[in-house]
């Protein structure tokens, strides 16, 4: 029997896919992925590549036999690297309208995080809530961070953008800002480590967000990786390990 006839018989019995399947498996997951992690967001992610987000993501992917390599960079840089396809995903991204258009998300958030407006204690409260801020309020945020869909609609604010949390606090302490918006767990860490916990306090809430690992929207494997992370996070929750990790953060954080 000629080779051509033999191949035609095999294709007829098993389909073309049987012949092609050893060559390409687009749905297969990579054994190792590279993620961008922020360098200055304790207790979730710090300059040493440690924190709650690292532990959650590494253990969730480990249950799917996927090794995680973390690239520690400033947050905004992590977003850009993910969009450029230089990493598979970036840590701790709030799922909101502005990020839905840029990244692919799974269904399981890493955790919830609340943010508040902070100001100096030696000044009267700037307002009763974020919607009643007086005209010309100088409000500081960190470049690239998400602050909820409502934030862009707030009236009366003059937005000042800092490159990191230290710069943000310095602008507040030197009276160049009336208030800053910080995520509460992160604020607790920074106010403690910088020794200004007695000088700065939260005056009212900004928002609460679900934070995710945000995947490169243009990569073919991103959807499968997001599903793998979802499965891993669900396993951690079912085993009780997820709850223990969050409880450890709650007990060590400087404020809730």
Automatic annotation (TrEMBL):
Keyword Cell inner membrane tagged: no
Keyword Signal: yes
Domain Solute-binding protein family 3/N-terminal, chain residue ranges per copy: 32-253
SUPFAM superfamilies linked to this entry: Periplasmic binding protein-like II
Keywords from the named record: Signal
Gene3D superfamilies noted in UniProt: Periplasmic binding protein-like II
SMART domains referenced in this protein's UniProt entry, alphabetically: PBPb
Name listed for the protein in its UniProt record: Transporter substrate-binding domain-containing protein
Source organism phylogeny: Bacteria, Pseudomonadati, Pseudomonadota, Gammaproteobacteria, Alteromonadales
């Amino acid at each position: 029997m000629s080779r051509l006839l033999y191949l035609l018989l095999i294709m007829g019995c098993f389909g073309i896919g049987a012949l092609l399947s050893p060559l390409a498996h687009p749905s297969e997951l990579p054994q190792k992925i590279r993620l961008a992690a922020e360098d200055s967001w304790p207790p979730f992610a710090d300059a040493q590549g440690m924190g709650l987000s690292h532990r959650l993501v590494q253990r969730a992917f480990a249950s799917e036999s996927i090794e995680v390599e973390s690239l520690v960079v400033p947050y905004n840089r992590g977003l850009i690297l993910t969009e450029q396809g230089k990493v598979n995903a970036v840590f701790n991204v709030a799922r909101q309208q502005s990020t839905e258009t840029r990244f692919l998300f799974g269904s399981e958030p890493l955790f919830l995080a609340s943010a508040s407006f902070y100001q100096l204690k030696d000044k009267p409260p700037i307002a009763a809530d974020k919607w009643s801020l007086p005209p010309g309020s100088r409000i500081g945020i960190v470049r690239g961070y998400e602050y909820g869909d409502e934030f862009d609609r707030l009236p009366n604010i003059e937005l000042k953008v800092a490159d990191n949390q230290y710069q943000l606090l310095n602008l507040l302490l030197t009276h160049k800002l009336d208030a800053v918006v910080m995520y509460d767990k992160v604020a607790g860490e920074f106010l403690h480590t910088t020794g200004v916990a007695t000088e700065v306090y939260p005056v009212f809430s900004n928002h609460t967000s679900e934070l995710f690992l945000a995947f490169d929207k243009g990569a073919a494997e991103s959807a499968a990786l997001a599903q793998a992370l979802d499965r891993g996070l669900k396993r951690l929750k079912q085993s009780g390990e997820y709850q223990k990790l969050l409880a450890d953060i709650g007990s060590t954080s400087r404020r809730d």
